[in-house]
Amino acid sequence: MSSVKLQDRFGRSIDYVRLSVTDRCDLRCSYCMPKGFRGFEEPKDWLTFDEIERLLGIFVRLGTRRVRLTGGEPLLRRKLPELARKLSSLPGLQDLSLSTNATQLGKHATALRAAGVDRINVSLDSLDRACMQQITGRDSLQPILDGLMAGKAAGFDPIKINMVAMRGVNDGQIEAMAAFCIEQQFILRLIEAMPMGSTGRDAHYMPLAAVRERLAARFGLVPQAQELGGGPARYLATPDGRSSIGFITPMSQHFCASCNRVRLSVDGTLYLCLGQEEKFAFGPMLRGGATDAELEAAIRAAIELKPQQHDFNTQPDKIIRFMAQTGG
């Protein structure tokens, strides 16, 4: 196999794959999946663990250093620790992480940690029970908090809390979340909502610049140069350096020029950008007898499709698929 690493036509090194292991979820977050949605992939079309291991093994040989398990809610995929063990054993993979809503984390945290998952990100948009019920479609706060503490007890460090900031929904609760994360030594990441599908376009977008200034003043935050994972967040740290708050701003200050990621959906479709249509289907190749050399060539061809940037600001109605269909 070639030793040349993956680089797109704009000179960006692609070393991060977000792997969706299911498009199902036990919540219905208002910005991610519409209520009553039934357009899920059939389980027969999901990549098997062996197919995932084979394809991701080629990605890793081509320079992928980070893999994140996502969904939907990845903990709804049966025997997920078994897959985590396979992937964490791939020579050259430096970081295996998990994004979860944590409702099921209490059952699986210890096994996932033992299987080689290094870090977890937990979606938590409010500490108010009624607000979380409004956002997620069920009484979800306590199960999430229980799962979060189970993850902490299992030794995951750092634990990042992802909070989508929504004007008129949870914007009045950001300071409380920041105080909670600082107390627990979690890393809070505030995220601007993206207009993916009808749910995303109705997500009460708010820019984060003013929030950043407000939190910096209240908690005495200072700029942090240290990279925390392979993502696009820009971080401020507490004066004692024990906690951080990150800001992910795909709308107000997009980070497309440094984008290093692609997303592999549950059926093996590789999405090259959240805000564009370019994609490549690996499922038929995996099940059609393709050799590793052919898969490598296809990966390189797919990376060439990666667009320069998203069009969320200029064409907010362009993407009709929902976040859960792409992988978080």
Walkthrough of the structure:
There is one protein chain. This protein is α/β, with parallel strands linked by helices and 328 residues long. Helices cover 30% and strands 17% of the residues. The chain contains eleven helices and twelve strands. The chain has a twelve-stranded mixed β-sheet with strand order 7-8-9-6-5-4-3-2-1-10-11-12. Strand 5, helix 6 and strand 6 form a beta-alpha-beta unit. Helix 1 crosses helix 10, helix 2 runs parallel beside helix 3 and helix 3 runs parallel beside helix 5. The two termini are 30 Å apart. The mean pLDDT is 89.
Largest sheet: 12 strands, mixed
What does the average pLDDT come to? 89
**Unreliable runs, pLDDT <50, ≥5 residues?**
none
How does the overall form come out from the CA principal axes? globular
Compact summary:
The chain has helices at residues 49-61, 80-88, 105-114, 129-136, 141-153, 174-184, 197-201, 209-219, 283-286, 292-303, 323-326, and strands at 16-20, 66-70, 95-100, 119-123, 159-165, 187-192, 222-223, 234-237, 244-248, 261-264, 269-271, 279-281. With 328 residues, it is α/β, with parallel strands linked by helices.
List the helices and strands and how they pair.
Blueprint: E1 16-20, H1 49-61, E2 66-70, H2 80-88, E3 95-100, H3 105-114, E4 119-123, H4 129-136, H5 141-153, E5 159-165, H6 174-184, E6 187-192, H7 197-201, H8 209-219, E7 222-223, E8 234-237, E9 244-248, E10 261-264, E11 269-271, E12 279-281, H9 283-286, H10 292-303, H11 323-326
Parallel strand pairs: 1-2, 1-10, 2-3, 3-4, 4-5, 5-6, 6-9
Antiparallel strand pairs: 7-8, 8-9, 10-11, 11-12
Helix pairs in contact: 1-2, 1-10, 2-3, 3-5
